[in-house]
Amino acid sequence: MLPGLSLVIGGAASGKSDFAEGLVHGTGRAKVYLATAQAHDDEMRAKLARHRKARGPGWQTIEESLDVGRTLATISGDTCVLLDCATMWLSNHLLEGTDMAEAEAGLMAGLALSAAPVVIVTNEVGASVVPENAMARHFREAQGRLNQKLAAKAGLVVNVIAGLPQVLKGDLP
C-alpha cells in the first residue's frame, strides 16, 4: 500500500514517470493524472499527446499548471493521484513571478488535505554543473529546496536512474 505521499525523483528521461505510473496502477484505485505542463508550442503539444496515448485508458487527466494544492484537496479518496511533475509546476510559477513561499504553502496544504494517495514526479537538478546564468541558478536552488521539502513529507522516496528504481526512503508496496 502506498503512503499518503510518494516522491519519484530522477534526471530527465530517467524513466521516473513510467515508474510512477506503475506505482499508481498497482494501487488498484481509480487513477488521476494531474498534469502541470503547458503546451506552448507544437513540439510540446505532440509530446503531451504521446504521453496521454502511452498511459492508455483508465486515467482521468486534470490539467492544472499552477494551483495544484487546491486541486489535490478536491480529489476523491477512492483514487490515486499522479502529479507529473513538480519541476514543471515550479517552472510555471517562476515564469509567472509568483511568490514561491505562498505557492509552496498552497501545495503543502493541498497535500495535507488530499484524501487520496499522491505520487509526485520531480527532477533531480543538483547533480550537474553550476548553471552559467542567474535565472538557471535560481531555478536549480528553488527545485532543490522544493525536492527536500517534498522528500521530508513523503513516506516513500524513489530515485530512478536509467529506468532502475533505488528506494531512498520507505518501502515499495
Walkthrough of the structure:
The chain contains 6 helices and 7 strands. The protein is of the alpha/beta class and 173 residues long. The longest helix is centred in the last third of the chain and has 20 residues, at 134-153. Helix 3 (68-74) packs parallel to helix 5 (100-113). The protein has helices at 16-25, 42-55, 68-74, 86-96, 100-113, 134-153; strands at residues 5-10, 30-35, 59-63, 79-84, 118-123, 156-161, 164-169. It starts with a strand and ends with a strand. It has a single domain, classed as Rossmann fold.
Give a quick rundown of the structure.
Helix content is 44%, strand content 24%.
Report mean pLDDT, rounded to a whole number: 94
CATH topology, by name, is Rossmann fold
Query: What is the β-strand count?
Result: 7
- Most strands sheet: 7 strands, mixed
Low-confidence stretches: none
Which CATH top level class fits?
A: Alpha Beta
Biggest sheet strand order reads: 3-2-4-5-1-6-7
Order of helices and strands: EHEHEHEHHEHEE
List the keywords.
alpha/beta, Rossmann fold, 24% strand, single chain, 173 residues, seven-stranded mixed β-sheet, 6 helices
Describe the protein's topology:
Layout: E1 5-10, H1 16-25, E2 30-35, H2 42-55, E3 59-63, H3 68-74, E4 79-84, H4 86-96, H5 100-113, E5 118-123, H6 134-153, E6 156-161, E7 164-169
Parallel strand pairs: 1-5, 1-6, 2-3, 2-4, 4-5
Antiparallel strand pairs: 6-7
